[in-house]
Amino acid sequence: MNTNSIRSFIVDDETQSRSALRQELQLHCTEVENVGEAGNIPDAVEAINKLQPDLLFLDIKLRDGLGFEILDKLEHRNFHIIFTTAYSEYALKALKLNALDYLLKPIDSQELIQAIAKVMEMPVRNKPMLKQPLPDQSGRISLNTSEGTFVVALSDITHCTAYGNYCFIHLIGNRRIMITRTMKDLEKQLGEFGFERIHHSHIVNLSHVVSYKNKDGGTVVLTDDTQLPISTRKRQNLLTYFDTISLK
User: What range does the domain containing 180 cover?
Assistant: First the structure.
């Protein structure tokens, strides 16, 4: 998992505990981006279904029940779990649920670092790419450059490529625009419109993907014959996406 940051979500009914864990992550685990928090079961279920994190920090004893109940209510469990609790008697059940780790409160910094190291070594749980039909791409997006602002149709963008501190937006007709945006920013902005990050340096417009080749560890071919590498952790996701649009 070392090509991208880990998107985590914290579930704990104590505000102070959530804050303490968040600070520990910021201090010692910079590869982790915490995308949300919840203090009860309904809020946790709703947010996790929406945000689909890579990693869930789950307190076991909550005011409105046990954290295990959250797992039963989720639409998908496409994430790793690290249980956090002050009660060691739940360790066996946590292990039976394939938890990656089990941290006792107050959380020790070194134990947290070791737990995150385990996550980094694990493959990302498969998350299906966008299911058909693809989102509407009839809109446009403005791109700010050193030369001015360009407005382009989303459907004209074939892919985006990182280049140092810059990104190239590639358009149909072999055009490209260089902008000072990070891949993470683009991933967040374009993700809801049918774009998928397939590599730490590449985001593709799924409507422009025409094939996948096994050579060189995996290559995606676009409508303009551009060939881009796909990371190991994203390969199965792409194949799953192809399966959603195949003829049955």
Answer: 140-244
